[in-house]
Design a protein that fits this description.
CATH architecture of chain B: Orthogonal Bundle
Strand content of chain B: 5-15%
Strand order of the largest sheet of chain A: 2-3-5
CATH topology of chain B: Cytochrome-c3 Hydrogenase, chain B
Helix content of chain A: 10-25%
Strand order of the largest sheet of chain B: 1-2-3
Strand content of chain A: 5-15%
Distance between the termini of chain B: 55 Å
Shape of chain A: elongated
CATH topology of chain A: Alpha-Beta Plaits
Number of helices of chain A: 4
Radius of gyration of chain B: 22 Å
Number of helices of chain B: 14
CATH superfamily of chain B: Cytochrome-c3 Hydrogenase, chain B
Distance between the termini of chain A: 67 Å
CATH class of chain B: Mainly Alpha
Order of helices and strands of chain B: EEEHHHHHEEHHHHHHEEEHHH
Structural class of chain A: alpha+beta
Oligomer: heterodimer
Shape of chain B: globular
Largest interface: A-B, 22 and 24 residues
Number of domains of chain B: 1
Structural class of chain B: alpha+beta
Radius of gyration of chain A: 22 Å
Number of strands of chain B: 8
Number of strands of chain A: 5
Number of domains of chain A: 1
Largest sheet of chain A: 3 strands, antiparallel
Amino acid sequence: MEMGIVDRMLKNLIKKPITVRFPWESIEIPEGYRGEHVFDINKCISCSLCARVCPNRAIEMVEVPEEYRDRYPKRYPKIDLGKCCFCALCQDICPKGAIQLTKNVYLSVFDKNAVVKAPLKKEELKT
Amino acid sequence: METLTPLYDTYYNLYFGPAHCGSGNFGVKLRVRGEKIIDARADPGYLHRGFEKLMEYRVPIQNAVLSDRLCVLEPLSWNLVHAEAVEEIMGIEIPERASYIRVIMAELTRIQSHLIWFAAFSMGTGFDAGFKLAIGYRDYILDIFERITGARVYPAGYICPGGVRRDIPENISRKILDTLDYREEEMIELFHDLLYNPIIIERTRDVGVLKLKDAVRLGATGPVLRACGLKADVRKDDPYEVYGEFDFEIPTGRKGDALSRLKVGVEEMKESVNIVKQALEKMPPGDYIHPNLKRINLWKKMPPGESYARIEAARGEACCYMVSDGHPQPYRVKFRGPSFLHMIPVLEFLLKGTEVADVPAIYWSLNPCPADMDR
């Protein structure tokens, strides 16, 4: 399949570019992508299987702040996304489906403490 | 009167890598006299991460995740060889559908790995358009991986002991066929440009000639050995998974120079496309993982014993030797990376007596992966 240089130039003139202009547009991320975790504390039974299966030991079982301890008395996973390799073993092993990996891949932050996900979110703490 | 050292006796040490933009985390110490290379010493270890030791502290499903990192360019092949070694030691029979999925993933990995090979080769020889095109076509295959495994490059142990971690999506076979048909046509165009370009031919023909006798003596495998004319392929010689059911050819070269190695690579990609199409047609319905392993049985003890698995990765023969002493963790894991022998004995042998300008062409025609060499 040999093309002359003129044919090729014409073909490339009408061809769409292979890339997208990233910060303004991005390619669609499919279902089942292994991105940021979402943890549902109401489903969690504190079995700590996720902490044991994590290959990078990114999950630590911690207690929630004292004012919520009567409602959530057990220990819950705290996920350090800085150590996480996004293998989704915690999602696979969770018997109740409390940890789910979402399609969110925009995880860059300026503050290094922001990558640690406490079991209770700030919004939940306020209510 | 004392004379200065005669000119012909002076030599210089030239460092090609490990932080050189065209060597990829691997160093070669060259001793040059003028333009001539009189000696070459490979200098591995820059990318050593100690996987074999790390695996002694983890259970097989965690090791499956770790085995991706053995080689960035073909993680699924290393998943496969690790999973086969664990299955042999634990005596697990995997479902037939899982075998077909494994073959599809392994062959797609081979295609994208060869595309990186040509990208790196083009970059090394100063053919920048080839680099960009090859990396661009690789992205179409990464799109398929993204849909199946959940990430573009690292599948996170997609091929795990017992089968595969999740079933392939329903509409994916249409997408794979579309990508292969569309890409195959353009790929042929790309390699027509690359391999029939007079500049590339001048830089690769009769450069780095490896005779069959030397290739066997130095332990070359994969495309490097096949380019010397020997039909050696683990997929045919010692079929694993369901490779025995497919009809495919093993391309070989004749001269054993850099050009014939690249040509073998192109032919292999066409055969891989062929195998993927056959596998998609024949794929049976059923389970994708051994039923007892669906809820990952983590702390199940491995029976004492040892196992040895080998597969044909894109670069050559990838092997895994595993010893268990009855604990959930393996006692010892040893990986044999194909790049190790290509990059130390074969590269040192080929570089001796050549010229400095031929170093990138010889280096990249061997399809090196420093990650699987240093491990």
